[in-house]
Each structure stands twice: as structure tokens, then as C-alpha cells.
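In the previous chapter we treated chains in isolation. Here, by contrast, the input contains two separate entities that must be folded as one system, with a combined length of 656 residues.
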Amino acid sequence: MSTLLEVSGISVTFDGFRAINNLSFRIGTAEMRAIIGPNGAGKTTFMDIVTGKTRPDEGRVIWGEKSINLLKMNESQIARAGIGRKFQRPTVFEDQTVLENLVMALKKTRTPLSVLGYRRSSDDIDRVEALADEIGLRAELPRKSGELAHGQKQWLEIGMLLAQEPRLLLVDEPAAGMSPAEREHTTALLVEAAKTRAVVVVEHDMEFVRRLNCKVTVFHEGSVLAEGSLDHVTANQHVIDVYLGR
Amino acid sequence: MQKPFFIRNPSVMIFVALLAAFTIGVTILSQGFGIDVISTSMVKTLGKTLCLCLIALAMDLVWGYTGILSLGHFAFFGLGGYMVGMWLMYERTKAIVVNSLAEAPLPPTPNEIREGIGTQIFGVVGGAEIPPIWVFADSLTMQLALVVLIPGILAFVFGWLAFRSRVTGVYLSILTQAMTLALALYLFQNDSGLRGNNGLSGLQNIPGAEGVPQSELSVYFLWASALALGLGYVLAAWIVGGKFGSVIRGIRDDEARVRFLGYHVESYKLFIFTVTAIIAAIAGALYYPQAGIINPAEMAPIASIYLAVWVAIGGRGRLYGAVIGAGFVSLVSTWFTGGQAPDIPLGFYTVKWVDWWLVLLGLSFVLVTLFAPKGIGGLFDLISGRIAPNRHGADLGPGMGSLREQEAEK
């Protein structure tokens, strides 16, 4: 499998605190990966670096077949290159309808002038409706997304991610605050997405990670502590000491 | 597929119809064309108010929709006024100079005319030379183009520098204040080339229309202002109605999220900042020929703060709210400060509205912000029944974690 994203030797320091310490990570084009680790292990900072929000002090972040240097690009360019990100707390545009949220996320030219002249075509509506079916929000399309339940907002955000048609999805704690039934639906959505693209899930909940049934990377103090199947890493004595044992 | 623009936006049709009715009504009641119920000065006040409504519309786009609290849009308004004022003053002075020189035994040379104009216009600031920035002042077309270009370029450059550095929130507001203050202070200087604190005057006299009485001219300007406001409203409704509106409201509510969706937030801000600066400049270009005089005090920072107050009182985030706010507050302000409001004798003290009006305005601004954040425009929600139900903190929707009452009332 060819490599989609390769992060090598990145380090970043905030006010003397080393959030990321010589971290390397790679993921293939159609792969699911879970990242686990204790609080402060650098999981969110890692995502910030990949999406361009934070600049590392050193290291390289290489993207795609053409080996593009992501560190030279800003957030919106990286998003357009095909990296989608879901935040920990659901961030949808609460003042706008589910339909408007999804239409905004659809993969289209993003320059102001082309957006100004944009008209919804029936193709776009079909695409949005198909997505809404997938995330179980078909009936909620005309509602304001602020009115949705917490789990539905999480799905809407996943739907917006899928609408962007990214090649890599970075998903931060998708199952936080969800009921067991909602978790199952979320798992199904992510597993389905990982068939055609790379998905990186940061999660605390081991049960959820187990259901994703994928390779696991354990972060600790800003670098990779262990990598492999869930059973393999949970058997690792280091991992037990720093993370599971507590 | 989408329905046609006007069907999707019934408020636009209602607004345009009301504006047309207002304009026709004023014309019928005017001194110039109608039955002489409304005085010429009142027609001018109404025409100027329409221009203020237009700049309020621009403010609503940039603040109410995009979330950029610009406190500098009156700088663009003033610049627009100066650009058109230069032509008005130059051409009128030229006519006067040519007239007076016509009695001389020899016909005047072009150079003599230029010198005459220079002395006439700039004598008051101790100069006689026509400054280089007046190079296009004899061409109406060029000056009208400059109405759009100068504020547009200034807004573009300023916005590019500010947004590129990701200056947001109150820091951006302070920066825009600094811009308008710097511009006003520069124009106050006698050698700025725009007559310092004297400003440009006599702008109500339109060159080439000497035979038309002010009573008729005022109605023409009212029409032009109404047309500009109507077009501005349709343009603004079109901008905010579609996906572009979605994106800028997204920027207002969560800028980082829009960025991660792949939109270059800075370009959008720059676009809206520049477009609204141009709208403000056009409003200014129509305002000052009706006011008759422009000076740098018009660009003082306080003017732009008033603008924010109008939009807040009218209801930001909805276009008609801005128009209502600007129209209502500026007309009430004219009434109070014009000495028409009756004084209130309290026995020990007499409340004179000329002094107390600002206190009242400030108080209503505070009250609106605290208790009616939707402003006057929010009253329309009462009529259309679009009011947030009072559920005493319970969930609005069926699911857990839905928007709570206090969130919905934001």
C-alpha cells in the first residue's frame, strides 16, 4: 500500500513544554488507524500540525503521491488538498440549517467569486440527500443544526467531512458523549469511510477502538510509544505502565 | 434546483415596494414637484437619510453578517463625498472665474482661468496652486470613477494587511478606528490639498444645472439616493442569500471551522470589506451634494461608532434591520438636536434635548444590547410568529444536548 501521509521527526515546543518530541507517523491511502494515549500525549497537537494550525519547530510532513510539503501550506490549502478534520466538540454552524451546512462542505471551487455565483444544481442536492441518508439526518435537512441532539451534530460534522471528499480524515473523539446505539452508527460510518480513504481516529474509549478493528498507535509524551494491533499494544508493558495501568 | 431570487426573498420585494412608495409619496408632497407639504430642506434630510441607510446596509454586511466590527466605514463614506465634491467645487468655481474674466478686455488664457480657480478654491488655506490630486477634477467621469476606486483601493490594501496578519475582534476594530482617525487628521491639515478643516463647500450647486431650483434638485437627489439604496439592498440580499452568505455567517460564528472546510477566510473578509467600502463611498457621494458641505470632521471616529449604534439598534444580521435602525435613529436624532423636541421642565432642572439626546441614545443602545439583542428588526419576528418558545431552560428539540433556551436567544 502506498503512503498517503508521512510525518517524520517533528518536534514542537510551547513555552518550554515539548508537546511533540521527534514524532514519526505514516498512513496509507485506504487505511483506518486509531491513536490512543494519555492526556497531554500530543494527540491533538499532532492533528494541529497536520492540518496547518500549528507549525512544528522541526521535522517534515509529506503528503500524497507528489510528496507535497504540507508545512508550506495554510489551513485552507491543506483542507483543499484533501485533509478533513473533525473536532472534539461538535462544531457545526448552529445558526444554519443542516442543508446549508452540508452544501457549504460539498467539494466545489472555494474562491469567493465562484461561491458568489454558485447555484445549487440538482446533482448537488442529490449528493447532499445521499449524504444525509448515510448520516441518518435526511428528515432533519431543513432544521437549524443548533436544534439537533449532540449525537446528531457529531454525525452532521462527519457528514460535512465526507462531503469534502477528503483523502484523509482526522477524527478527534467521535464517540464522546454518545449513547451505545449512536456509537455503533458512528463506528459503521467510519469503517465505511475507511474503505476508500485514510481515517485517523483519536479516541480514549478502548471499547470503541476495539470495534474499529484496526491498527493502533500509542502516543506518549509527544512520541510514538507502540504501534500494532490493539491486542499487541495492550500487551506491551510500557503501554500498560503509562496508560492502561492508571 | 433553486427558486428565483425574488421568490426566495420576499422581504426584498416588500422592501423595494415600500421604498418606491416612500419616494413617490415624498415627491408628491414635495415643494419642487408636488403640493408643497414637505419643505425642500426636509426633502434633503430624507434624501440624506436614505444615504445613511445605504451605509448602514454596508455596515450590516461587514459586521452583522461577517462579524467584522469595522469602526472605520465612515472614512470611506467621507472619501466618496470628497471625490464627488472635488468635481462639484472645481466646475462651479471655474464657471464663476470664467464669468468674471469675461468682462476683461482680452479673453482669458487657460492658464489665467486655472490660476483664478486656484486662488478662489485654495485662497482660504493660503495657497493658489491647484494640488496634483485635483488633476481629474474637471472630469465628472473620472471623479465618479475615483469615488469607487480610491475607497476601494484603500479598503483593499488596509484589509489585506489586517486580515493577512489575522487581526480579529476588538483589535481589528481599534485598527479601523486608527485608520479613520489618521485620515481625518491628515485631511485637517491645510496642505493636504483638500482645504483642511474648511473642507469643500457649495456642493449643493450642481454645475450645468444652474437653472434648476434647489426644490427640484433635492427631489432628483432623493430619487438617486432611493435608487442606490434599492440596488444596494438587492445586491446585499443576493450576496447573503446564497452559499456566499452561508460562508460569511460561518466565518462570523466559527472562523477556524470555515478554514478547515477549505475556504480561504481572509479572501472572503477582504472581499466583503472592500465591497462594503465601495457601497459606503457611493452613499457618501450621494450624501454630500445634498448636505452641501464636507469637512474632515465628518470622518471623525465617532461617526463610525454611530454607524455601529444604528445597526445594533435596528437589528444586525438582517438587512432591513440596518435600514430601519439608520433611518429611525438619524431622523429622531435630527428631531431632538434640531430643537424641535419640547424641553421637559422638572422644576429644579429643565431637560434640554439638544444636550440630553446623546445620553438618551447611549442609554437606548445599552438597553437594546442587554434586553433586545435583535433590535427593532426583532419586532418583525413577533409579527411572523418566529419567536423562540419559552421553555424555561428545557431542550428545544427532542434529543439530549439540543440548543438550550439561552443559546437560542443569542
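The first helix of chain B runs from residue 5 to 8. The CA atoms of residues 47 and 221 of chain B lie 7 Å apart. Compare these points with the single-chain example from earlier in the chapter.
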